[in-house]
Hints:
About 40% of the residues lie in helices and about 15% in strands. The protein is α+β, with helices and mostly antiparallel strands. The chain has a three-stranded antiparallel sheet with strand order 2-1-6. The protein has a two-stranded antiparallel ribbon with strand order 3-4. Helix 3 (about 25-45) packs antiparallel against helix 6 (about 115-120).
Amino acid sequence: MPLSLMLNRDAHRPEQSRAGNSPAGTFYRRVVDVIAGAFMLLLTLPLFVLTALVVRLSGPGPLLCPELCLGAGGQVFGLLTFRGPMAAYSSALPLKLTALGRLIHLTRVDQLPVFLNLVRGDLTLVGPCPQPLNTPGAQEAAKFGAYLKPGQKPGLTGWCGRN
Length: 163
């Protein structure tokens, strides 16, 4: 077997390697994303509402904080998370997470709004992790298209979580 076929195991099966890029495959993937996202939102709705209430009562500020990330086609989207409950201990010190804010962050409950991104179409279930724009080299990757393949969306879970 030629080395090129061993390195690209789908090269000799073009009908399978291109199936995900077809309009039917894209439509199917979008339907699965919407159904999975809506199901997870419904499943976590009580925790979602409780966390939103805790964050809202913890102080002023927005309920959701979007982190700017690089999406399909180099477009920027806001990856939604709950704002962590913060407390100011003095005017000279920066804000610190409260005990409840630490619990929300450690249990990753603050990541529940990401399912809204999944339903909105910013993310797909399986794909490369969203690239935050505040990381080094993200602007250059966006400019040259080095982060995602054309038309590829970032994913909720990475490729490694699929195996």
